[in-house]
Structures are given as structure tokens and as C-alpha cells.
Automatic annotation (TrEMBL):
Signal peptide coordinates: 1-20
Main subcellular location: membrane
Keywords, in A-Z order: Cell membrane, Lipoprotein, Membrane, Palmitate, Phosphate transport, Signal, Transport
Keyword presence, Acetylation: no
Name of the featured protein: Phosphate-binding protein
GO terms for biological process, alphabetical: phosphate ion transport
Subcellular location: Cell membrane
Domain of life: Bacteria
Amino acid sequence: MFKKQILAAIVGMGMIFSLAGCGQTNEQSNNPTNQPAAGNNEPAQVEKLKGNVVIDGSGTVYPLMAHIAEDYMTNSQSGVSVQVGRAGSSAGFKKFIPGETDFADASRAIKDSEVEELKGKGLEMGANVMEIKLAYDGLTIVINKNNDWAKEMTDDEIVKMFTSKAVKGDDNVLWSDIRAEWPQEEIKFYGPNENHGTYEFFYETILDKKDLVSSVNLQQEYSTLVDLVAQDKNAIAFFGYGYYATNTDKLTAVKVDFGKGPVEPALNTIGEDLDYAGFTRLVYTYLNLNYAKEKPQVLDFAQFVVSPEGAAKFAADNGFAPLPEATYAEYTSALKALKQ
């Protein structure tokens, strides 16, 4: 079940938060891991770490990563301060590539151009940077609660209405231009701006790199998008499922017909092999492996993220469908190998 209240509390904490903050260096404490001796049933002491972990990137991934970070600092490593930002996927990579952050969250895969920029900094994907798939997200089309005509649309109608000049040369599209029985009122288009991987996924994958309607209003903050759609019955917008799921009292999600009947985005329909596959995507975090080797708290947090206590546990709470356990287990094995 989606724990709306928990998520709302996390998002409300702001762009960056830091709970622990009591350790500002990478120094480890004087309490190294003590494995129990043979025959000793006393539990092993957990290695107490200090220092910072710096993460920035996708606003879509932010609620999930912030939730994981909060739990890690509260229940696992109170001496570690995990700072999570939401500048957007592209903006996050601009900080990650020159080494300003330990992780880059992204709602789309890293681009070839960004891989080349990493090489320019002496970093190779796989050798120095690890791609970690966190969960599945469903791109969700939302409308105003008072819109009682566009609750179901085909994927072709959605693509056409958002594509520049596909309906009208001036892009001033009316609802009646999509279906004759709908109101003769202008559609107000909204979405996240170019800093966000959600914009890039929509533009590159859904619209096949065709320009969005010139009348679209693009915003940096998802909360602003929610408010704009909630206040205008002619509004329509796209963003990750999680932001819809936390605002179901303000928005309606459009059921999308991919050819087999309308499908509502939901945790049991979002997935590469499920009914909402047409608008399903992976979300990621990228780890600087050099920093993971140098800073124990960075490696420890990475292991927490892919553990059963990390993304697998909190994905559904934040509007994402978790990946198979085997996927997270592979990342755990790879990260453990860094200690050897």
C-alpha cells in the first residue's frame, strides 16, 4: 500500500536534507567490525561510520532516495549524513561527471554524450562508474479532477496532441480537435522542463524526438505542476507515477489504451511485461566507484540501497514497482567485491 503520509513528510523536508550531520569527515570510528568468534552467539557489532554521502539528480527518483537515506541515517548509520538533491537528471550528471557528487540519480539511462564526458575525466562506465537500476516507474498523464471527458485516451492520441503541429499549425489545440464530442476549449499542456529525465524520456521515447507543442508550459518543480493542473480543468501534464499517487485528491490519471483496452497506471500494471509497459521506464542511480573505494560510508550506503532494506523495501511506498530480487542481489555481490 502506498504510504502517502510518509512520502509527503519526506518531500516536505525540502530539496536537500541532512539528518545526522554529526560527522563531517570520512574518518571511521574506532569501532571496527567485530565478527563473533566460533561458538560465540553474541551478535556482531556494526561498524560505525562517519562522513558525508552526496547525491543529486532526478526529481522523480528523489522521494525514493530520500526515503532510503532517512531510514539509513535513522536506523543504520547515525554518524553518516546523506544529502539528497533533486536538480534533475541532466543537472545531476553535470555535478556527478566532474566529481562533485558520489551518486547521480536519473529517471533515464545515462547518455552516450555523458559517457564521453566521463571519459574526459578519466572515468569509464563499469570500471569507475556503476549503473544501478532502482525500480520501474510509469509515465503518468494527469488531468484536472473536473475533466470528465478525457479520462481514457489511446497512446496515439496522447502522442499526437503533445506533438508540435501534429494537430494544428499554431499548436493551439482544442479538446474537440482530438475527439469531436469533447469541448471546444483549448488544451493547456504542462510538463517538467529539460533538466528532468522525465522530459527527455517523454521527448525521446514517447514522442520519438519530435518537438513538443509550442504552447507547452514546462516547470522545474513537480509541486508547481500539480498545482497548475489542479487549478485548470483544461490542463493536461505528464510526470512520474509517484507524484500522481501522492496527489490523487487533486488529479486524475488518464487510463491509456495501448491497443488492448484502457489501462490505469498502478503498481500492479507498471512493468516491462505488464499492461502499462508502453509507458514504463527504469529509474537509476549512478555510483562513483572510486569514491566508494575511498570512502567507506559511500560504499556502505550503496550496499544499503540495493539491500532488502533499501530500494526493494521502499519502492512501492514511493510509487515505484520494485525490480526482481535477483537484480538487487547482483548489485550486492558486485559491491561486496569492492572490499576484497
